[in-house]
Amino acid sequence: MKNTAFALMLLCALSFAFVPATAAQAVYGETNAKTAVGVKFSTLGAGIELAAPITHLSNLRFGFNAFSYSRGFDKDNIHYGADMTFRSIEGHYDIFPFDGGFHLSPGFVANLASPVTASSSVLGGQSFTLGGADFVSNPANPIAGKGKIDFNRAGPSFTVGWGNLLARSTKRFTLPFEVGIVYQGAPKATLNLTGSACDPSGLNCRTASDPTIQSHIPSEQRKINNDINFLQAYPIVSIGFGFKL
Q1: What whole-number distance in Å separates Cα of residue 155 and Cα of residue 25?
Q2: What is the pLDDT along the chain (245 residues), one digit of tens a residue?
Q3: Calpha distance 37→165 (Å, rounded)
Q4: Topology of domain 2-244, CATH
Q5: pTM for the predicted model, two decimal places
Q6: Domain ranges in the chain?
Q7: Which of 59, 56, 15 is nearest to 36 (CA)?
Q8: Integer angstrom CA distances of residue 160 from 7, 38, 90, 94, 164
């Protein structure tokens, strides 16, 4: 069901994004209405976008963004190697209330994959905390694992900015700028461990699949979610360059 809804949203966005400019000219008498393309850099990554006119005071804009970044960090003595790979599509209905560059843009942003994946490890013999409980990574079979952080596949966005990719004039170039947010929902961390861990004395070692260790994983996931909960309202800051075709 979720995949079907996502596909319909994408199809709708693509359909509107390529509305022929001649249709806008015929209905609204817009002599300068054409299609425009733009490139931009934003907190969603590097992107490309297309715009088509809807009325004299509005456009529909559709884009794709990509961004990759890797870094390592430690939490509760567990080392994480995180890969942030943002791949998203976005759609905006740009409204120009004063017939100028200022615009209000409700829309949506949809993630094409899990934005954050990570590997986890604890050196053999090193102590670590999992869900509030203390353990020691078994030197003979150290703790390791993989994890990911998901957000809602798609969420509503709202931006304000200056610049019109399809300026209703002879102007062909523009430098659009906008700020806003996309609501992507609460983070959902998933942590899967392998190897084995012992009690703080180094005895009573258990594999990561043991119910005693597994019972602490949900608590650790909640801690991670709470630490990054502020990202459910993700900020958008964007600047770009547009060319009217």
Answers
A1: 32
A2: 444 444 444 444 444 444 444 444 444 444 455 899 999 999 999 999 999 999 999 999 999 999 999 999 888 899 999 998 889 999 999 999 998 899 999 999 999 988 899 999 999 999 999 988 999 999 999 999 999 999 999 999 999 999 999 888 888 899 999 999 999 999 999 999 999 999 998 889 999 999 989 999 999 999 999 999 999 999 999 999 999 98
A3: 7
A4: Porin (2.40.160)
A5: 0.78
A6: 2-244
A7: 59
A8: 27, 17, 15, 9, 12
